[in-house]
Amino acid sequence: MKEDENSSSPTDFSDDSSVTTGIRSLKELIDLVSGRTVSSHLPQEESGRAEALPFPFLGIVAQLEMKLALLLGIINPAIGGVLLIGPRGTGKTTAVRSLLNLLPDVKRSTCYYGCTEEDIEAGGIDAVCPECAQKYAEGLPLTKNDPVRLVELPLNAQLPDVIGSIDDQIDLHERRRLKRGILAQADLNVLFVDEVNLINDEIINVILDASAGGRFVIKRGDLRATYNARFSLVGSMNPEEGNIRSQILDRFGLRVIVRGLNDVSDRLEAYQRVRLYQNNPHLLIRQYEMDTNLARQEVISARERLKNVHLPEPVAHKAIQLIRHLNIDSLRAEITFLEAVRAYCAADGRDSVTMNDIQQVAPMALRLRHSHFMDSYFNERDLEDQKLQNTMTDVFSQTDPQKE
Description:
The chain is of the alpha/beta class. The protein folds into two domains: about 15-305, 3-Layer(aba) Sandwich (Rossmann fold), CATH 3.40.50; about 310-395, Magnesium chelatase subunit I, C-Terminal domain (Helicase, Ruva Protein, domain 3). About 45% of the residues lie in helices and about 10% in strands. The strands form four sheets. It has a five-stranded parallel beta sheet. Helix 12 (about 290-305) packs across helix 14 (about 330-345), helix 13 (about 315-325) runs parallel beside helix 15 and helix 14 packs across helix 15 (about 355-365). The protein starts with about 25 loop residues before the first helix and ends in a 7-residue tail after the last helix. Mean pLDDT is about 85; it is low at about 1-20 and about 45-50.
């Protein structure tokens, strides 16, 4: 995957139909658009309105591995999340927030308690609230199509903000109920934890447990509720500001080292795009609108295609062999690696994983998984066990003086 080196002059391609012709997959679209330049002759826009206008995802210069990892995490949440590691100012947070316009639709409950048709299919009519039971009996839908949202965890978030608390906004005559926290709001969405290495350990443990189980239980006095927490987890961190616990690191499926741009022309192009975005975000976003819509459709197609992606046994064996040669102990490595490979295959518009897919995904899935500490620890235990066995052999081979 290389940048388009032939784009030497600024070009406004907002109405250029050639941009999208011949595109066969999401991965190919990312490769193509990342190398294009944009028009530098945009008038400054004057507006006092505050709008959510994320920087175009396809407008991020270079950083192909970061963009690919984020897309794979959206296509296949079973990967277990993405962690972006790098110095400040390298576009980590911008990239995550720019996913907003690429996120697909999901079926979301219209009920405060999160009732769905699947609840009834799994547990009967008693599995939903009375109001939803009546709606279901009348043939009314309990869900609606709604775009996946990006939910951000504030750096100053407290535990009640994350898991929920008793709703103190209800009227005095109403029965007490629990108010949903950030974890419940993140269900079927993308949860972004910026500066994950600075978040309180108690909060991180709750997020990781909910992410692993897909649900969590909250108890407040005599109130108890179970909420779904089926979210895609994305984190970012700057190693200069502190390390991350190995337990937390192990939970992130893909790990991307985000470095600054080395190529002078890339850095200049990045500056020009940021300047245009600051002056007139609407026009810059419009230049990428066609490709953004296409990329979103490709994400949706890849998610559908993922269900039918086949992983040949020889390819799976080669992936596991690679893991064993790297002395990686965690079984999450296999889960993450193989699920990421399937997502990569789906993003490339194919239904069967190849050896090349393994090689493309391996760095993202397997870096930072080998533990030198555990190597040393196991070596010490092996020496201790060997000494124990030798001592037992010596002691039990001696004749017992009392029996002579």
